[in-house]
Amino acid sequence: MSGLRTLRGWRGLAPGDRGAAVALGNFDGVHRGHQRVIALAAKAAGELGAPLGVITFDPHPRVYFRPDEPAFRLMKPDQQARALQALGVDVLYVLPLDAELANMTDREFATRVLHEGLGARHVAVGFDNSFGRDRTGSPQTMRQYGGELGFGVSVAEPVGDAEGQKFSSTDVREALRDGRPQDAAAILGRPFAIEGVVEKGRQLGRALGFPTANIGLADYVQPKFGVYATRTRLPDGRVLPGVASLGVNPTVGEVTPRLEVWLFDFDEDLYGQVLDTDLVTFLRPEARFPSLEAMTAQVMADAQEARRILRA
């Protein structure tokens, strides 16, 4: 797999960094609907002999325009880059969302950014894509600007489930908040994963017989607090089954939400390493136990159930 190049900005790009067929969107989650848009850009890239590019924004428009809303991200930037690279994307254009970009009209965005800045030869968008100040741009106006400026435009039709419900990042977030990770995975095309650096905790789990790797939630959407069957990727590529508590651990008085993963049949030092943990199945809600002994007994039962599910 060739490497993905990440470029920040749209001005002064080298000739070799311009002229791609691009997919335009936020692509948080790179779910199956997003993949349809990227596939259209890939088709055009193949026909034009052009690189395949993806355009995203940093910060996410929702963060920029509604900074006080709760955390909602489905991916960290490096997770997104890996998912895009797996789809064959050559160039990721990260456009800094600042006052200048936010105040561009849809025509200015198409002209200055897509045409003059990136030299896009083709632009693929989703059926509900909007762009430009006040979100006045639409797939229809993008087709108009493409005709005027000389780039092709393709529009992805909705992708959804058997009941006709279209796939969206909003539905992924709702599924996770409801404790339905399998439904989130069906939309994403893979399990939802939390990536983070292993932090030093109280080491209480180790003393009780279930050592855990503790990872902060950062600005991820907050899944339902509780216990999950998990699979965790280590930096060396190994994938290990486990069980995790996601929440505030009320029995021992924790306050900051975090993921505490017990990796089965594993005993190595992971402090400071970056782990990527899939939430596979929700086992039960978070609970406050009357004693550490009662908590430990339940954790052992959770682990047995997680092993059974993951074997299946």
First-to-last CA distance: 31 Å
Using the 3D structure, state the CATH architecture of the largest domain: 3-Layer(aba) Sandwich
Report the helical percentage. 25-40%
Adjacency order of strands in the biggest sheet: 1-4-3-2-5-6
Order of helices and strands: EEHEHHEHHEHEHHEHEEEEEH
The amount of beta strand, in percent, is: 15-25%
Radius of gyration: 22 Å
- The dominant shape is elongated
Q: Which residues sit in consecutive blocks of at least 5 with pLDDT less than 50?
A: none
Describe this structure in words.
The chain is α/β, with parallel strands linked by helices. The protein folds into two domains: 5-156, Rossmann fold (3-Layer(aba) Sandwich); 190-311, Elongation Factor Tu (Ef-tu), domain 3, CATH 2.40.30.30. It is built from ten helices and twelve strands. The strands form two sheets. The protein has a six-stranded parallel beta sheet with strand order 1-4-3-2-5-6, sandwiched between helices. The chain has a six-stranded antiparallel beta sheet with strand order 7-12-9-10-11-8. Helix 1 (32-48) links the parallel strand 2 (21-24) and strand 3 (52-58). Helix 5 (106-117) packs across helix 6 (139-149) and helix 7 (169-177) packs antiparallel against helix 8. The longest helix is centred in the C-terminal third of the chain and has 20 residues, at 292-311. It is elongated.
Task: Note the main attributes of this structure.
312 residues; alpha/beta; Rossmann fold; Elongation Factor Tu (Ef-tu), domain 3; 2 domains; six-stranded parallel β-sheet; six-stranded antiparallel β-sheet; 10 helices; 12 strands
